[in-house]
Design a protein that fits this description.
Length: 164
């Protein structure tokens, strides 16, 4: 036996054992705990997403907010969402401007090649909820002004739910 092996063996013998047993919980405490107790709410300031995780639960609800997204005459896409493990998801769009906007839901199998799933024109001051009709792993929203020289501002909310 080498010296290092003897030293480590001696160290193991001299360590004090500490109970790693967890305190017992009653069955009632388990029943009172809600099945979905962790909520993630990403917050966005000026188009940059950030995530706030509230303490104590499993991921059941997710929200991504894109406030103040500006439309232009060319199509611009918001960041893609990996929707592969989500049970249900919806885009809520609020048109804060006066001009109409063309909004497309785009889906992709690889986050590179996107196909238009559905599209809708949202008038100024109007709120709509859009849900994809088909499923692929990635989903994103593309926005554009209906009239070339009339931009508008949109608030986009991506809300999703995962069933345990």
């Amino acid at each position: 036996m080498s010296r290092t092996a003897k030293r480590s063996k001696k160290r193991l013998r001299s360590t004090k054992y500490v109970s790693r047993r967890r305190p017992r919980r009653s069955c009632r405490a388990k029943l009172l705990k809600p099945p979905c107790s962790r909520i993630t709410r990403p917050r966005v300031k000026q188009g940059r997403p950030s995530r706030t995780i509230l303490p104590g639960a499993t991921h059941c609800f997710t929200e991504h907010t894109y406030v103040g997204a500006e439309t232009s005459s060319s199509t611009s896409a918001l960041p893609a969402q990996d929707t592969s493990s989500l049970s249900m998801y919806t885009y809520g769009i609020v048109n804060r401007g006066k001009n109409p906007a063309l909004v497309q839901i785009q889906i992709s199998p690889n986050a590179v090649d996107y196909a238009v799933d559905s599209q809708e024109v949202i008038a100024g001051g109007q709120t709509k909820a859009l849900v994809p009709q088909r499923f692929l792993r990635y989903t994103r929203l593309a926005i554009q002004s209906v009239e070339p020289d009339q931009p508008t501002r949109l608030d986009v909310y991506f809300q999703a739910q995962r069933m345990p």
